[in-house]
Amino acid sequence: MMDLEGFLKSVGEKIGAQWVDTRHETLARYGEHTLPAEARAPSAVVFPSSTAEVQEIVLAANEYHVALFPVSTGNNIGLGSRAPARAGQVVVDLGHRMNRILEVNEETCYAELQPGVSFTMLHDELERRGGKLMLSATSGPPHGGVMGNAMDRGAGYGPYFDHFGMLCGMEVVLGNGDVIRTGDGSLDSEELVNWHVSKFSFGPALDGLFSQSNYGIVTRVGVWLMPRPPAARSFHFTFPDDEDIAEIIELCRPMKLSNFVPSLFRVANDLYAIAPDEVSAEYAPGVKNAISKEGRLALQKRHGLGAWQVSGMFYGASDAAIEPLIQRVRGHFERSGKARYISHDEAQNISALKVAIDSMTGRPSASELGMLKWRPGSGNAWFLPGTPMVGAQALELDRVGRGIYEKHGMDYIVMHVASARFARGLHVLSWNKDDADENRRADACYRELSTEFAKRGVGVGRAPADYYDFHMDQMLPSLKKVYSSLKRALDPNAVISPGKYGIDGEQ
Question: What are the TM regions of this chain, as residue ranges (predicted)?
Fold first, then answer.
């Protein structure tokens, strides 16, 4: 039986009572999010300063049967922010006091970080050191956590886009209170010269168990960094018609299969590109229609953009060395007869394209957060499916998605992040969270999107907290059984984030 009072007293004695917060205003703030459901306030927030203090919190949670919900910086906007998976869980705010860059190694190009290190903090430290190294930035909140984004399998757009794949060596407090290190940090030694340069050591590789799971609390990681090249030049194309997505995917695929283009392709539709800088002129309270085709065309004309914008980047020794690469990719895309080229220099003055340049050169930017103002009320959720890099399949899913958005009166805002064989679709839902009917329609839209895409063999890569159980119910029963078995083995009392990603520990 849960003994919250006993837990808080015990934790206060271990980490200091001033780091245990039960004030109403604090709980309300931590319970807020941008999703359709009601706020989920925690019962308390605790602020550890070290792995040892996290371990004490987990041991106390086991003793007093209290559910914890760890967050790093709590800026997972559109996916749950820092609200717990279930109301009443105790938020363990790792970022408030555990926010140190423990090491930057400029020889083998990595940094060792605590959970509270944000993209901006790491970028600024690398610049302070002379800018020899660059991180992989998202286009999301620059104050978001590097580690938290990677553990939830977020991504960037440059060559080091795979943020979880670029982690090497973790320190983890398991749900049972044990502390482990992964990779070559698993040696029973304090001389860990390979911890953040060699992912794999003796025995099974465990790192993946702690991504999008609730088996432990990661308190320290190594993250690989890219040497900053002497020059970087972007290229951009606009396409005029919605149906051009099929041709765009066909054009991008060979460029990535050969790795001729080292960055990912950002393939953003008109509203994804424009919404950060605009407020919907057609929105009014009670309106249940998506923006009109005429309204979209007017926005495209005003911003000098198209139905789709394609962005990528080359890196090299000099601008002159990169120019032939730009010309080759330009010739490839312009053969379509529909692509309009926008140069790197021109794009610097177009905010929708400048954000692509910033993210691909490791510079955090808050530009895309402007989408929260597209409609009032700051309702925001992300539907994150994917598609093979096959034009016909991309077009089919695009038509399905557009139809569902329109049915529920939502504006179709999407960007595809395209690699060689697969593109992740960043489908944005933006609505007035202060309007009960819009909340209902946003929720119905998300559920229908997920259901219809799943029917076509397409699942999601990440999920908003409101839909953890919904997506877990789409998984194989045998897989769910494995997840539950791992939960019972590593967190036998299910004290860490029960319900996160639909994992409880029950059979």
Answer: none
Q: Are 174 and 157 in contact (CB under 8 A)?
A: no
- Asked if 141 contacts 75 with a C-beta cutoff of 8 angstroms, the reply is yes
In the numeric block, the tokens 């998976």 are attached to 85
Burial class (CB in 10 A: 0-12, 13-18, 19+), 420: middle
257: CB partners within 8 A, 6+ apart: 420, 421
Per-residue pLDDT tens over the stretch 33-91: 999 999 999 999 999 999 999 999 999 999 999 999 999 999 999 999 999 999 999 99
CA distances to 146, 270, 274 from 365, in Å = 14, 20, 16
Q: Which residues lie across from 426 on neighbouring strands?
A: 415
DSSP label at residue 385: B
Please tell me whether residue 79 adopts helix, strand or coil conformation. Answer: coil
Task: Give residue 400's identity as a one-letter amino acid code.
Answer: V
CATH no. for 231-463: 3.40.462.10
| Same fold: 4-94+491-502 with 101-227 | no
* Interval 295-336: pLDDT, tens: 999 999 999 999 999 999 999 999 999 999 999 999 999 998
Contact by Cβ (8 Å): 281, 295: yes
476 three-state secondary structure: coil
Q: Write out 310-328 in H/E/C secondary structure.
A: EEEEEEECCHHHHHHHHHH
Contact partners, residue 460, CB within 8 Å, separation at least 6: 383, 384, 385, 450, 453, 471
* DSSP secondary structure of 138-192: -SS-TTSBHHHHHHTT-B-SSTT-BTTTTEEEEEEEETTS-EEE-GGGGSSSS--
Query: Which 8-state DSSP code applies to residue 229?
Result: P
Question: Residue by residue, what is the 3-state secondary structure of 92-133?
Answer: EECCCCCCCEEEEECCCCEEEECCCCEHHHHHHHHHHCCCCE
- Which DSSP symbol is given to 371? G
Where are the chain's structural domains? 4-94+491-502, 101-227, 231-463
Question: Can you name the CATH fold of 101-227?
Answer: 3.30.465
Give the whole-angstrom CA distance, residue 4 versus residue 67. 9
DSSP 205: -
